[in-house]
Inverse folding.
């Protein structure tokens, strides 16, 4: 009698779960293809379980008809599989039409077979084990069952083909479907024990409620994320039920020696049933009981979802750290009227009143944390609310920090774009200035010798400035060639010695070959030597050194002129920075640009022995990338 009650309970639970899952699938059917068909499949499962219950109550004719609906379940399952996996094979309208046509034939065949087997007596009800009535298949019923198995096998063949050509989450879902199919086969086999005259209670039937959950979960686990949260809760409650049953079993076993044999002799079936009912009641009462406990322990610290949403929205509207601090302070005061102090990115609390409660937000290893300090004198409810508020404030700091970094990057990008446009405009203006200068030069030929000489000197100065501006702001094209840097270095130094009328002490190794733009490197050397000569006195000297290092060639230009002031060093290679009278202030900026394009480095050093001013240029022997145009 107990086994019969367990079986009935299992059937009713399966019906309840199947109808619930079908309703949910029907509701979600507009979002995912094929879910409405899967809902029909789970409904048919509920109807099939209802057939067994009707048979127990003596409704033999209707129960037999329902139980002989076997072929419709695998047919519906096959329909779902074809609809679900259709995009994997093809999404053409013709393919969809073929599926609909074939499914109409299969549904029609299943209905005809169900009707024929029912009219010809597919099965009957008779006593079996503890059951006064249980369904036994006759020959037409076996034909009905074999057809259902064949259709189910066809569905799994389609699944196997899809498995071979699928990837990622779809493949994982197909594997889960196969595992669920094996589980369903194990459960269904136990239902034909009576027809095979096997006197073995079908305990596997008791696990039937798990099948509709598993078959749906295997499909939607990777497609509808919210279902994972439900399954997680279900697994949790199942684990609690199992542990509680084991604990109760051990407890009852220990009660027997204490003279409580009647209590210890509770049947295992009743133990499972009572534990399940107790767990269900506990699950229903958990939410209200938790809310009651929270209100009892934290009477002044309750937060609802509307308040939390309002806090999050208010934090998201802050556009600066000051605004975020003000927003946080205002929200806290509105909610609690408890004094507090908001500290964002502050290393100490020295500036905050020691008597106040603090939210101290700091960034550590790229992550924002908010700690509650000096809250010991507040109530437990306020402390709990402060912890929640601190978590939201830390998230707000993280979001604002990220937003400000993105805004700064966008500002720099726009500034860079503006500089590029300004450079093009400057180059165009400098180029156009040459025409009026030429006219001025021609007009100056009619003036007196002293005036003409003065005008020509200023024109040459303007021409030099225009040349430097065009060199710095225009496009930089590199003509990279294999070059004997030793020969180029010696040639430029000898020319500059005559040009600037300054002695240059030369130290250079022979045969140093490197891939560079010879014209641009010559421009670098001339600019550096020009600067060195300009700041060296008549009695001073310039030293030029060319050395080979393991991975590079280094050029050093030394002069014993006055040291460069410390306040100029950070901007030394910036444009329009110069102490040289009549200079454009672009020489070193042009040097840095050319060297950077060669993937080299240029820097100033004031620590070389006997040389107050030294500029080093280092060019790689094997640059990682040759860039033709900039």
């Amino acid at each position: 009698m107990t086994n019969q009650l367990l079986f009935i309970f299992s059937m009713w639970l399966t019906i309840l779960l199947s109808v619930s899952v079908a309703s949910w699938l029907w509701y979600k059917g507009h979002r995912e293809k094929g879910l409405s068909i899967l809902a029909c499949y789970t409904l048919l499962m509920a109807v099939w379980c209802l057939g067994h219950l009707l048979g127990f109550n003596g409704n033999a004719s209707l129960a037999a008809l329902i139980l002989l609906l076997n072929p419709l379940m695998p047919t519906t399952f096959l329909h779902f599989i074809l609809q679900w996996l259709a995009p994997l094979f093809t999404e053409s309208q013709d393919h969809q039409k073929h599926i609909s046509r074939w499914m109409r034939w299969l549904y029609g065949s299943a209905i005809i077979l169900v009707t024929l087997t029912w009219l010809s007596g597919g099965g009957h009800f008779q006593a079996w084990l503890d059951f006064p009535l249980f369904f036994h298949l006759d020959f037409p019923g076996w034909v009905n069952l074999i057809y259902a198995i064949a259709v189910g096998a066809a569905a799994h063949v389609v699944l196997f083909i899809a498995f071979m050509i699928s990837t990622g989450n779809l493949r994982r879902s197909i594997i889960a479907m196969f595992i669920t199919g094996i589980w369903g086969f194990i459960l269904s086999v136990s239902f034909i024990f009576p027809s095979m005259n096997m006197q073995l209670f079908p305990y596997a039937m008791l696990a039937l409620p798990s099948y509709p959950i598993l078959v749906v979960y295997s499909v939607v686990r990777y497609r509808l994320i919210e279902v994972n949260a439900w399954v997680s809760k279900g697994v949790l409650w199942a684990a609690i039920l199992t542990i509680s049953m084991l604990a109760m079993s051990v407890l009852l076993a220990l009660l027997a020696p204490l003279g409580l044999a009647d209590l210890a002799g509770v049947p295992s079936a009743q133990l499972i049933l009572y534990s399940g009912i107790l767990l269900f009641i506990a699950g229903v009462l958990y939410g209200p009981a938790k809310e009651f406990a929270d209100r009892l322990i934290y009477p002044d610290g309750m937060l609802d979802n509307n308040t939390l949403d309002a806090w999050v929205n208010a934090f998201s509207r802050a556009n600066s750290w000051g605004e975020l601090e003000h927003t946080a302070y205002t929200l806290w005061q509105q909610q609690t009227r408890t004094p507090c102090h908001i500290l964002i990115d502050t290393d100490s609390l020295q500036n905050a009143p020691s008597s106040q409660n603090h939210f101290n937000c700091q960034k550590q290893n790229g992550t924002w944390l908010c700690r509650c300090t000096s809250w010991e004198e507040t109530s437990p409810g306020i402390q709990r609310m402060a912890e929640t508020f601190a978590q939201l404030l830390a998230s707000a700091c993280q979001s604002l920090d990220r937003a400000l970094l993105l805004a700064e990057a966008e500002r720099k990008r726009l500034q860079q774009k503006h500089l590029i446009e300004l450079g093009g405009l400057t180059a165009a203006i400098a180029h156009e200035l040459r025409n009026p200068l030429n006219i001025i030069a021609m007009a100056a030929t009619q003036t007196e010798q002293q005036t003409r000489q003065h005008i020509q000197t200023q024109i040459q100065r303007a021409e030099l400035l225009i040349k430097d501006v065009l060199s710095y702001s225009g496009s930089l094209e590199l003509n990279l060639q294999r070059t004997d840097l030793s020969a180029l270095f010696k040639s430029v130094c000898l020319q500059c010695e005559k040009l600037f009328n300054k002695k240059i002490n030369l130290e250079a190794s022979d045969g140093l070959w490197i891939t560079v733009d010879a014209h641009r490197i010559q421009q670098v050397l001339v600019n550096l030597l020009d600067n060195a000569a300009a700041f060296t006195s008549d009695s001073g000297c310039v030293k030029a050194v060319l050395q080979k290092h393991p991975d590079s060639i280094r050029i050093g230009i030394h002069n014993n002129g006055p040291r460069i002031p410390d306040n100029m060093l950070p901007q030394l290679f910036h444009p329009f920075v110069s102490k040289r009278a009549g200079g454009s202030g672009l020489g070193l900026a042009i040097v840095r640009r050319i060297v950077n394009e060669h993937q080299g480095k240029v820097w100033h050093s004031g620590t070389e022995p006997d040389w107050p001013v030294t500029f080093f240029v280092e060019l790689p022997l094997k640059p990682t990338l040759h860039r033709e145009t900039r």
Summary: The radius of gyration is 44 Å.
